[in-house]
Each structure stands twice: as structure tokens, then as C-alpha cells.
Amino acid sequence: MIKVASLGSGSKGNSTLISSKEATVMVDCGFTLKETLKRLERLEVAPTELDALLVTHEHQDHISGIGPLSRKFDIPVWSTRGSLLSGKCGRLERYSIIEGFQDFHIADLKVMPISVPHDAREPCQYMFEVAGKRLAILTDLGSYTPEIVATLSTCDGLLLECNHDEEMLWQGPYPRSLKQRVGGPLGHMSNRQAIELLKSVMNDRLKLLIASHISEQNNCPKLVQTSVAESIGWPEEEVIIAQQNEGFGWFTLD
Prior knowledge:
Layout: E1 2-8, E2 15-19, E3 24-27, H1 33-42, E4 52-54, H2 60-63, H3 66-73, E5 77-80, H4 81-85, E6 95-98, E7 104-106, E8 109-115, E9 124-130, E10 133-138, H5 146-152, E11 157-161, H6 166-171, H7 176-183, H8 191-201, E12 208-212, H9 221-232, E13 239-241, E14 248-253
Helix pairs in contact: 8-9
């Protein structure tokens, strides 16, 4: 059994919970300590239940709460060396370095780091496995690789970035330099790219799909839900939307 929930997803803060029978881990923490505790309470999780904090990369909407949460509750942090050397986590008293994107275990939870193209020092995303069930988180990447396609083809559940609609981004208010960053190969994945990737990895194994890291300025949740569902032949209500303010409640793969 793997369970997943979100404290929030978007440019104002990101954090995802993954839970198995023996472990609960948090992927990223882009909220203040006070806000994190409030959102954990909503999901009925005490911070003392967290076995590890996993870092994807050093951008503030993913990392700003890692140090305070780790220090206050003595929670170990896992990070690539590049993300750690950025210094953005602040002082850490307990940490482990992910070397070469090698798999590791936290109790019964197998953690498989995934290298991704993004404008950070050594960014990664994660796939988790328990008893043959696999759940992947794939956000914050401007393009995808054959290795990513091969990895996601083995998933039972997927949190996938649908950051922006390309037309909304390029016609929107962002400065040109920011538009180029977001829409570039090391930026964020558009709805079109997400759909292309999904079509490449779709099979009967995938049962849970959550659209994540949706831009509040350059996208629309309904547009994401409708276009993704139509592209893969799913009912719209089966494409879950990760919200910035509410995240989403617990979903279980078993």
C-alpha cells in the first residue's frame, strides 16, 4: 500500500506526503513552519510521524521550510549533493546525500531518485515502491528524457506537472526573460508536454493521475483536467487536480 497527499502545489509552495505501512515521508517543504504544521493537521499527520524529508531541488517554493521543520522535530533530510551545497536548506543537523541518483530505502519504502532537466544545481524527482506498487512525482522539469519515459512506464500512480498553457504564458504579463525561463528546456512542463509524455507512458497499470504544479497565472485547472482527460480517454473526474491552497487529501494505491 502507498498513500499520497499534498499540503499544496504551485509557485507559492509545494509539499507532498508519501506513506506506507512502515514509513511516512515528506517530499519538499515550501511553506513556513507555522503554515506547514497547519496543513499537516488538516491531513491528520503529526510532524513527529515524519520519518524523512526528501528534497527535489533548492528553489524556495520547495525548500524554504525544510531546515526549520527538520531542526524543530529532528527529522533527517535526504538531498542530492548539488541541492545541499546550494545552502538554501539552512543549517541541517541530520542529513544524507543521494549519490548518483541511487535507490535507497526508508523502512519498507523504496525510494528511486529520478534525474530531471531543470534550472537547479542537481535536481531530482522521485518514484516510490512498496510491494510492487509504484508511485512517481514528476514536477519542475522543462523537458523529458527517454530515461524518464522508461521509468514512468512502470508507474501505478503519477503526480505530473502541468504548469502552464503555452498560449497563456506567451500572451501573459510575465517579462520576456521569465517567459523564456518557464517555457524553456530547463523550466516547467506545459500542458502540451505533459500530454505528450502521458501518451508515451500510458498503459493499463496506471490507475491514479494527479495534475500538479499548475500555474495560477498561466493555466486553468479546468483546462488541464479537460485536455488531459480527453487525451488519454479518461473521465474528467478521474484526473485529480493538486491545488495551491488545499493540495489534495489522501489517495491510496493498494
